[in-house]
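Researcher: Structure prediction, please.
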Amino acid sequence: MPTHRIDVAIRGLAGTTLLVLLLAGCGRSATPADVPPPPPSSESPVSTTPDAQSPANPADAPGAPAQPAPAAPPPQEPAATPTPAANSASSDEPRLASMSAAKASAKISVPVDLRYQFEGPVLPNQPVMLHLAAVPRVAGSHLTVSVNPVAGLRMDAASLTVQKASADGVYRQQFALTAIDGAPRELRVMVTMDMDQGKGFGFFTVPLTSGTAAQKQHSVKQR
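Model: Predicted structure follows.
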């Protein structure tokens, strides 16, 4: 074959191959891998997840105004203490209803009743406690109850004095006495009180023979 024809054929084949390659590159569509990623944004995305360090209660956040303390409940009034009755006795005093009535003298001007009770028998040379109770029937002042000293008895009794005596009051006195040689059979008690009509007084007799551990009680009306 002549050399000129061979060169023409090679050039024609090369041109055809180049044309086929160009057509193939133009017909291929762009794939996702060939698309470049978008440039990063300068603004950070807003997070919808709550910050773990953020306080749950806005009132607990630093700088929040202090909440006022709840008002304290009003103080309750203390319960009233019951007042004991005028004729009620303490733990070491006999009840008025269990005490005997002292015998008043014929001449008496003081409206007061006197009651007594021994804690045991009156025995020689043995001290015994005597309880007295003065019960006014009207109000007055300077009520006094005094035991007259008598031979044969040793006593440490002091006079009972009440500045203001009420009609429903019971005024008590107690003292120890000891019978010695030649002891009398009775004890005399003087009672005085000032009233609107003047000063009243009277003498009462307490029999020492009635001082037993279990006395026979007179029937008295408890006030």
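Model: The longest helix spans residues 3-27.
Researcher: Thanks, that helps.
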